[in-house]
Amino acid sequence: MELNILFHCTTGSCELSPSLLLPFFNREVSLKSECRLILFLSIPLAIANYLIVYQNVPQKVQPVVFGQILVCLGILLFICALESLCRTANLLLTISAFIVSMFLPIGQHLCLVLLAVTWHRLPVFSILWLPSCISHMCLVFALYRLPYSLRCFLASLDCGFFLILLVFFSTSVSNVLQSAPIISCQITICFVNMISLLLLLIFITRITEYERKSEASCNVAFKNEERDVQLMQDINRLLIDNILPPTVAHKFLSHDRNTDELYARDHDNVCVMFASIPNFKEYWSECDHTRKLECLRLLNEIVCEFDKLLSKPKFSCIEKIKTVASTYMAAAGLTDSDNADNSPERNAAVIVEFAQAMASVLDQLNIDSFQNFELRIGINVGPVVAGVLGQKPQYDIWGNSVNIASRMDSSGVIGYIQVNEETKQILSKKKSDYQWIYRGEINIKGKGPMITYLLKLSRKNRINFYKLI
């Protein structure tokens, strides 16, 4: 530790504990005010001085000296009571309590000096009170919640006050037996001890202040790092939750997860939807290269509005899978919960309602952006395999049901939802008032001839739903 750093410590302030840990005790003592701390530490000092007076002071003057000790303790009690009533004057009362406590170690000496005027043969030895004065100066070290400069001032005041009384008010050497050399040099002993202790206290207090502020700075830095780590974890969790379904995200965020382990689940009764905007490709080709970014912004706004629909409670069972160009892919029924209604009728009906909501949102965006985009949607119900491939999480679904839903979209009609006959029967069980349009048998790429039905994305339904959201 360099002295230059030690004496130029500019580390910020820190929160201080109101508790005091006493020697040989494991439990902390709560002393929330400096006045109480001064009173607490003054009691053993008063007891020690009482014993000194009892053993070394003539019996005829002991009542006066004992009275002085009791008066000091009484004033300290009064200041503590006053502090509990007047919290605003805490610093002033603390300084007052410290000044009063200064008379506990030296007050008896002062009483004997005054009494020596009447009784000329009354010996007044300064060195007798030196241990008490040293103990009181060490009390400044315990007032750790006071500013360092104020503690240095109080220690200097303490030292100066004691030196004046011990050096200038004591029995002269001529009145002392020459056979007691320690008494004859008591002034030198008092002066050297008090000054040395003052310098030592100031230095130790400075070291303690530096270490306390350094520890506080480390604690603040640690808390900031901990907060940053927690923030990054929250951001990662938010990103994972946006990419993966909640049950899958929980598995990927677990600490005991094997990164090389394949995550895949079989799901029955899943309704898969592909929703395309066919005329967006035409809009993209009409824009020159300077407006491509504007086209992407518009597509991003459309997709974001579709994503907002997923936050609605009624669409909580739907998971967005991905977007490919202007095609939006979603599925209902991928939940792992046993309590959820995972019937094919319910999943298909929710997807149809979601498709109507998407059309309603797109209509409003067309009005705002002066465009004429329309949806072409294909859905299918059946079993799928859902999972994540690789270490970079990308949730996807596979299966024949996904392929059929994709073909229902690519071979569909703009402004309609196209389904095969099985999906149409499932939807009719849930709701019988769907206005189906029989399209007949069409050739589906990779699947051969297939009978399909169309469900119009009704403008009336769109407007009503848009008013609801």
Automatic annotation (TrEMBL):
Keywords: ATP-binding, Lyase, Magnesium, Membrane, Metal-binding, Nucleotide-binding, Transmembrane, Transmembrane helix. One of its GO terms (biological process) is adenylate cyclase-inhibiting G protein-coupled receptor signaling pathway. It is a multi-pass membrane protein. One of its GO terms (molecular function) is ATP binding. It is found in: Membrane. Residues 271-409 form the Guanylate cyclase domain. SMART domains: CYCc. InterPro entries: A/G_cyclase (IPR001054), Nucleotide_cyclase (IPR029787). It catalyses: GTP = 3',5'-cyclic GMP + diphosphate; ATP = 3',5'-cyclic AMP + diphosphate. Its EC number is 4.6.1.1. This is adenylate cyclase. It comes from Meloidogyne enterolobii (Root-knot nematode worm). The lineage of its organism: Eukaryota, Metazoa, Ecdysozoa, Nematoda, Chromadorea.
